[in-house]
Amino acid sequence: MQDDLFGGPPPPPSPSPAPPPSATPAPRSRPRTGVQPAPRDDTLRALAAALPPRLRLGTSSWTYPGWTGLVWDREYPDATLSKQGLTAYGQHPLLRTVCIDRSFYRALTDVQFRRYAEQVPADFRFVVKAPALVCDAQIRSEDGKGRQPNPLFLDPDVAVKEFIEPALAGMGHKVGALVFQLSPLPFMQLQRLPLLLDRLRAMLKALPDVRGATPDGVVAVEVRDPEWLAPGIAPALAEVLREAGATYCLGLHAKMPRMADQLPLLRALWPGPLVCRWNLNPLHGAYGYEDAQREYAPYDRIHDVDEDTRELIVRTVRGVTGAGQNAYVTISNKAEGCAPLSARALAERLASA
Q: Which Pfam families does the annotation name (predicted)?
C-alpha cells in the first residue's frame, strides 16, 4: 500500500455496496488529437529491420492527404498535415529522413528548425535545402521568371548566417544533409562556370565543419544544369567539393542527365556518403513538373515505374552502406506517383539481397 504525503499509510476505505453491473459506467476513451499514423504494419517493421542501418529513406515533404492508409490513419487537410503531420510521419518504419523544401523559399530560424527536430525520433535525420537567397543566381518573380541578378548568390556570410548556423543550432544531431541546390543558371552564367567554381569554393570553405559538428551531417551540392557535368567542368567541381569536405547530391530530375551519367562525379569523391534526391520522372521532360503534379495527384498509388532508377539506386545504396558510409535517399511524389510506395519498393529490393 502506497504511503501518503506525510509518510503514513492511507486510511482504509469505507465499505460501500457495489453498484449492480448495469449501473457501472463504461470507461470513456479520450479523443485522439493531432494527426495519427497509419495502423501498425508488422510487415513494414520487419522490412525496415532488414535494411542497412546507415540508409535513411524518406520523402520530399509530408503534406499529402493522399497518403491515407500509407502514412496517416485517415485523410487530413494538407494544412493540418503541414503543422502536425511530421510526428506521425516519423513513426513510419521505413521513413527515417525527410527533405525540408520549405527552407528553399524562405530562410528558417533556429527556432523553426528546433520545432521540426522535436517531432521526430532520436535516430531521424533531416535533408534540408538551403534558401534560394544564396542558391539562385537570379531574383525571381512569383511565376519563377528571373527579374534581375541576385547579388547574394553564393555569398559565404549569407550561407553561414541564414542556413548553416540556424540548422545546426536548431536540429543538432538530427542534421543529415544540408543541400545547396543551385538553380538553373542564365545563359551568360553558364558560359562562366570556372568563375562560379571559384565562388562556390570560397563559399563552401567558409562554412562551419558540419561533419565535425554532427554525427551524420554533410554538406552537399546539387545542380540543375547539365553543363556542370561536362568533361571540362565535372573534375573541377569534384575537386572543389573534395577540398571543402562536401559531396555531390545526385539530383534525379529530368533537367539533368540520368543517374548513371551523374555517378562518375560521385565516384570521384569516394569514399563518402550518398545524398540522392529522386525528384521527377524523365517521362515528363525537363519542364514537366506541373504535368506530373496534375497526373499523379492525389499521390496515392504508383503511376509510372522508373525501373532503371530503382535498380541503380539499390545498387548504389548497397555499395555505399556496405563500405560503412551513410546514404540519404529522398523521393518526390513526382518520381513515380507515390513517394511512400516508391520507398517501399526500394526497401523490398534492398532487403531481398
A: DUF72
